[in-house]
Amino acid sequence: MEREVRAKGTAVLVTIGEFARSSRLSAKALRRYDELGLLRPALVDPVNGYRYYDGTQVGTARLVAWLRRIGMPLAGIKEVVVLDAGAAAAAIRAYWAQVEAETAARRDLAAFLVDHLAAEEVEMSQVMDRGSLGTLGIRYAAQSDQGAVRATNQDAAFAGARLLAVADGFGERGAGASTAAIDALKPVARSAVPAAELLNALEDAADQAARAVRDAVAGSGAPDESGTTLTAMVWTGSQLGLVHIGDSRAYLLRGGELFRITHDHSLVQSMIDDGSLTEEEAASHPQRALLLKALGGGSGQDGPARADVQLREARPGDRYLLCSDGLSAVVDGTELSGALGAADGPDTAVRELVALAHAAGGPDNVACVVADVVAL
């Protein structure tokens, strides 16, 4: 019975046992996938209920098995298996880029927790030493500019004594989305959050921002198509808490060297990460604006996208830049570093950076925040 074979037209059908061995999926898994509509048998005997599969289904079954091995949820697999090869490859690449981004965020959190718990006494002594040198503060400036091409400005920028933020809205209600995201962070910035509690506060604030954006775009005809990026920092007096989602960026100028401290949640960044695209090729890629994660009205297969959060230790002399891709996509790192290093203060820096974006054609809105860490 196990090796029973049936014919259906010109196709040769095999039993679920034979198909399980060929596809490297268990019979139990095949029954489950049938129930979910993920992998239907070619024939179900109406009398005894036996399932029979076409040999041409082996490729799909093996793809399902491989996708399960990389941890893709069944809902995602159901979408991938009906795509052609090129579209399926792009979908898998996008899924894995999201996995890597989330893994990197968890790795940063784990590293922070290890350092925080294992070196608490050392950290306290550093705080005391810092106090003997004087209190740290920040000086800041922000500017949002329409650019030379766009009819409206959907970018938002904010700089205050405890909050620095940029957001790049998109879609019909992009302007409202970017404003809502930043406004949602202001309450946590106004509260006196101890440094040790900042990470939890940032998680809560990021969730509040996500809800605020969903509410802001809910009235549009296609809410899934409106949303915003968000890159923000909350100042505690000794640390900066970073919230980030999308392809706006945060940079740190320290000791004359410029470091990018955020990772783009974009298709081209995922292709750079897996080696299929160079930085130079990414700059002209036709899908360079396609985001894998953002705050918006839609939900992914695992729910709304979550922002990355991390903590950074502040040092006197640090200069931070937060910007939308209206700046970073048209002004390269060398120019950014030169303008930031030469400016005599945040006000001068933001003016110079926006001017550089305009000199490069100003094809997009620009949001820009610059902040200096200073000893008071």
Class per helix and strand makeup: alpha+beta
The 3D shape can be described as elongated
The major pleated sheet works out as: 7 strands, antiparallel
Q: How helical, in percent, are the residues?
A: 40-55%
How would you characterize the overall build of this protein?
This protein has 376 residues and is an alpha+beta fold. Helices cover 43% and strands 23% of the residues. It contains 13 helices and 16 strands. Strands 6, 7, 8, 9, 10, 13 and 14 form a seven-stranded antiparallel sheet that branches. A five-stranded antiparallel sheet has the order 5-16-15-11-12. The longest helix has 34 residues, at 85-118. The N and C termini lie far apart (84 Å). Mean pLDDT is 84; it is low at 121-133.
Sum up the structure in keywords.
alpha+beta; 376 residues; five-stranded antiparallel beta sheet; 43% helix; 16 strands; seven-stranded antiparallel beta sheet
